[in-house]
Write a structure and sequence with these properties.
Blueprint (H helix, E strand, L loop, with lengths): L1 H42 L2 E2 L7 E2 L3 H7 L2 H31 L7 H9 L6 H11 L6 H6 L16 H26 L3 H9 L4 H12 L1 H16 L3 H6 L11 H10 L4 H31 L1
Helix pairs in contact: 2-13, 3-7, 3-10, 4-7, 10-13, 12-13
């Protein structure tokens, strides 16, 4: 009987210790994620400027969104940004991973060098690239003047500003996703490549028939992460262009920031954030369903 009580006491003690480790995460999630999300959901049906008392207005914020030209421009810019960043990052990160998976001199240095931008301050990156993209004094346009008379205006041009942010985003992110692809490549058994080579498959056929199928799960994960991060883009836009020129780089999260902390229209900002959440959730669910269909095929 004493042994049973002792075992029960030890079990309860271990359970208590386990809960003590995970409790801070639960408290943090509850205070800094769950409560703000619920508050934002409620606030999307309100009119509130943070100074006066919240006023319930039903679906007026969502009705306003339908007729708000700036919202549709920011949604279009976000989609165009995503369309530009996702495939370019996938191609660049996979290409780098394949290149740096070879036995070459200085491999560790190059891996670190390509990963370094990801852990560098976004503000610092944006400031440096703004200097590089300067329309008259920037080294990029100084080089392009060798081949063309009028190089792009980049961040000062409404036609090129979004492309400039896409370029910086791909440059910054490809090192991180390269590491994920490297992990996937190193998990592919060499015997498969040897068997394919014995069957007469050249390097291209090995890439198409062995490498790509083996990296399907990695590519799926990378794509989901890229899409989510693209719809959350804010820092580079804020520092590099401020949503301009005009509204050329005004993306959804930047509009949420502008509505909430510039115009103090927290109700409308919450409504836009709710729509953004629904869009990202829908895209993620679609990607999961599509991946399941491909795996069954």
């Amino acid at each position: 009987m004493t042994n049973i009580k002792s075992l029960s006491s030890q079990k309860n003690k271990k359970t208590l210790i386990a809960f003590s480790f995970i409790l801070p995460n639960f408290v943090g999630f509850f205070l800094f994620t769950l409560i703000p999300v619920v508050f934002s959901l409620v606030l999307s049906f309100m009119e509130w400027d943070s100074f006066s008392k919240p006023k319930f207005i039903g679906f007026a914020n969502f009705t306003k969104m339908i007729h708000d030209e700036t919202f549709w421009i920011s949604l279009k810019n976000t989609i165009l940004y995503t369309i530009g960043v996702v495939p370019l990052t996938l191609i660049c990160s996979l290409g780098l991973a394949i290149l740096l998976n070879q036995k070459i001199r200085g491999m560790k240095f190059f891996r670190t060098a390509f990963f370094f931008p990801y852990v560098t301050s976004l503000v610092a990156i944006a400031v440096v690239w703004n200097m590089l993209f300067h329309p008259t004094m920037g080294p990029i346009n100084q080089f392009l003047k060798i081949f063309m008379e009028n190089p792009p205006g980049w961040t000062s041009s409404s036609d090129w500003a979004l492309m400039a942010i896409v370029i910086v985003s791909v440059w910054r992110g490809m090192g991180y996703y390269m590491i994920l692809y490297l992990a996937g490549l190193q998990g592919i058994p060499r015997e498969i490549y040897e068997a394919a080579s014995m069957d007469g498959a050249n390097k291209w056929k090995q890439f198409v028939n062995v490498t790509l199928p083996s990296l399907r799960s990695t590519t799926f994960f990378v794509t989901i992460m890229l899409v989510i991060n693209c719809f959350k883009i804010f820092d580079l836009v804020q520092v590099m262009t401020g949503g301009g020129p005009g509204r050329a780089t005004n993306v959804l999260v930047y509009q949420i920031y502008n509505e909430a902390f510039v115009k103090f229209n927290f109700g409308y900002a919450s409504a836009i954030s709710l729509v953004l959440f629904v869009i990202v959730l829908s895209i993620t669910i679609f990607q999961f369903k599509w991946n399941q269909v491909r795996e069954k095929a």
